[in-house]
Design brief:
The protein is of the alpha+beta class and about 400 residues long. It folds into 2 domains: about 5-50 and about 285-410, no CATH class; about 85-265, no CATH class. It contains 15 helices and 16 strands. The protein has helices at about 5-15, 20-55, 85-95, 135-140, 150-155, 165-170, 175-180, 215-225, 240-255, 270-280, 285-315, 315-325, 330-365, 375-400, 405-410, and strands at about 60-65, 75, 75-80, 100-115, 115, 120, 125-130, 145, 160-165, 185, 190-195, 200-205, 205, 210-215, 230-235, 265-270. Strands 1, 4, 5, 6, 7, 8, 9, 10, 11, 14, 15 and 16 form a 12-stranded mixed sheet that branches. Helix 1 (about 5-15) crosses helix 2 and helix 13 packs antiparallel against helix 14 (about 375-400). The chain is elongated, with a radius of gyration of 32 Å.
Length: about 400
C-alpha cells in the first residue's frame, strides 16, 4: 500500500473507534494547546514590549534609583534601594553633561486624570506627565499640530499643554485644528493646548494617545514633593557611542548625587535595547514551565494512544491475518499501524494549534499589540506530534507485524 492508502486506512480505523480516538485526540490537543498557547502568548507579550521600548531608540538610556529596576534582585539578594532622583539633580545633570546628547527630565504626575473642556470631560484614565523641551525628541514622539515646549517654558513653568489624539477625539470631535489654542482643565488647573502629538496607538493594553504633557516646573509645582522621583533619559547623538555616553553619565551622576569613592552606585542605567533582553531573560523559566506542562500532557496522551493501538491490534487480529494471507508483509502491517498512530496525533495537533494560536491572538488583543502567527511553534508542534505518534505506535505496530497469519485467522 502507498502512503495515501495507509492514511485512508488510518482514517477508517479512527471512525471505527470514534469515541476512543476522539478522547485521545483531545488529550493531545490539550497538550499542544498548552504548549503553543503559552509560548505564543509569551512571544506576543515580548513583541509588544519590544515595540514599546524600541520607540526610545537604540541610542538612548534611562537612569533609575537602585532597587527600582526591571532586574529586581541579584541572585536572590535584593539591591539596596537608592534615593529618588530629584528635580535639582536632573537640572544639575542637564547643565553639566558635556557629551553629545539630548537629555530629558520628566515627572509622572497622575495616571487617572480627568480632562475637561466646557461641558465635555474624559474618563479618569488620562496620564498626566510633566516634561521638558527634549522629552519628545528623546522619546521619539512627533507633533502632528502645533509646537513643542520651549526651554524657558519647561524651566519656568506655565499653563501650556501638549495632548494626545485620544483627548482630541473625546473633547473636540477629532478636530485637531479646532483644539489648538483652546483651554482645557485638569484637576481644576487650566492649560492652553499648544501642540498635539501624532497618533502612536496602544502598547501593553494602554493607549499611548491618552496623555497630557505639561511643562516640567508646572508639574513640580502642582504634583512634586520632596520624595518625588524624576525620570532621566539620555539620547546620545551617535548610536555607536552609547557605551561611552553611559560611562560619562555614570561618572557625572556619582558627582551629582555626591557619592564618595568607596560607595557603590545608588542608581542604575539601562540602555533601551537592553530592557527587552532583560525581559526575555526573565521569561526563560516561564517558557520552560510551559514546555514542561505541554510535554507532560503529551506523555499522558502517548500512553493513552498506545493503549488504544494495543486494543486495536487485539480487536483486528483476524483482519491482520486476512491481510497477511493476501500477501501483506510485516513491513506493510508495521507502516499501517504507525500511520494510524501518527494520523491521530496530527489530528489532535491541528486542533491544539488552532486553539493555541487563538490564545496568543487573545493575549495580543488584550495588550493592544500586533499579532504574529507563531510559525516556529506551529512547526515544532507538528514535529512533536509526529514523534509522539511514532513512539506510541511503535510497540503496537511491532506486535501486529509479528502476528502469525494462521493463528490470527483462527482468532475469534
Amino acid at each position: 500500500m502507498n502512503l495515501t492508502e495507509n492514511i485512508l486506512q488510518a482514517l477508517n480505523a479512527v471512525r471505527s473507534n470514534l469515541l476512543r480516538s476522539i478522547l485521545t485526540l483531545l488529550i493531545i490537543a490539550f497538550g499542544i494547546t498548552a504548549l503553543v498557547g503559552i509560548l505564543t502568548a509569551i512571544d506576543s507579550a515580548i513583541f509588544s514590549l519590544s515595540d514599546n521600548f524600541s520607540r526610545l531608540g537604540a541610542n538612548s538610556f534611562s537612569v533609575y534609583p537602585a532597587g527600582q529596576s526591571l532586574k529586581g534582585n541579584r541572585g536572590g539578594r535584593k539591591s539596596k534601594a537608592g534615593e529618588s532622583i530629584s528635580f535639582d539633580q536632573v537640572m544639575n545633570f542637564k547643565e553639566r553633561f558635556e557629551y553629545p546628547a539630548k537629555i530629558s527630565g520628566s515627572l509622572f504626575c497622575d495616571r487617572g486624570a480627568v480632562v475637561k473642556y466646557k461641558s465635555e470631560k474624559t474618563n479618569p484614565t488620562v496620564r498626566l506627565v510633566a516634561v521638558d523641551e527634549n522629552y519628545l525628541d528623546v522619546k521619539g514622539n512627533a507633533l502632528a499640530y502645533g509646537r513643542n515646549f520651549t526651554a524657558a517654558e519647561a524651566r519656568n513653568g506655565g499653563n501650556k499643554a501638549i495632548v494626545g489624539t485620544d483627548i482630541i477625539k473625546n473633547l473636540f470631535d477629532d478636530n485637531a485644528e479646532t483644539a489648538l489654542g483652546k483651554n482645557i482643565s485638569v484637576a481644576n488647573v487650566r492649560y492652553k493646548i499648544i501642540g498635539i502629538q501624532e497618533t502612536k496607538g496602544a502598547s501593553m493594553g494602554r493607549s499611548e494617545d491618552n496623555i497630557v504633557l505639561i511643562p516640567l516646573l508646572t508639574g513640580k509645582r502642582y504634583y512634586g514633593n520632596a520624595d518625588s522621583n524624576y525620570d532621566l533619559t539620555v539620547a546620545v547623538t551617535n548610536t555607536a557611542d552609547i557605551d561611552n555616553g553611559v560611562a560619562a553619565a555614570t561618572g557625572l551622576l556619582r558627582n551629582v548625587r555626591r557619592l564618595k569613592a568607596a560607595q557603590e552606585n545608588d542608581f542604575q542605567i539601562f540602555k533601551s535595547g537592553g530592557l527587552v533582553e532583560i525581559i526575555k531573560d526573565n521569561t526563560v523559566k516561564l517558557r520552560a514551565g510551559a514546555a514542561a506542562i505541554g510535554l507532560i500532557t503529551l506523555f499522558g496522551a502517548a500512553i493513552g494512544l498506545m493503549n488504544i493501538m494495543l486494543v486495536s491490534v487485539t480487536e483486528r487480529t483476524r483482519e491482520i491475518g486476512i491481510t497477511k494471507a493476501l500477501g501483506a508483509t510485516k513491513r506493510n502491517i508495521l507502516i499501517q499501524f504507525l500511520t494510524e498512530a501518527v494520523v491521530i496525533c496530527q489530528m489532535g495537533g491541528i486542533v491544539g494549534i488552532i486553539f493555541g494560536t487563538l490564545i496568543g491572538f487573545a493575549v495580543s488583543a488584550a495588550m493592544s499589540g500586533p499579532f504574529v502567527i507563531p510559525w516556529a511553534w506551529i512547526t515544532m508542534a507538528i514535529g512533536i506530534c509526529m514523534v509522539v505518534g511514532l513512539l506510541s505506535g511503535l510497540y503496537p505496530a511491532l506486535k501486529a507485524a509479528q502476528l502469525d497469519p494462521i493463528e490470527s485467522l483462527r482468532y475469534e
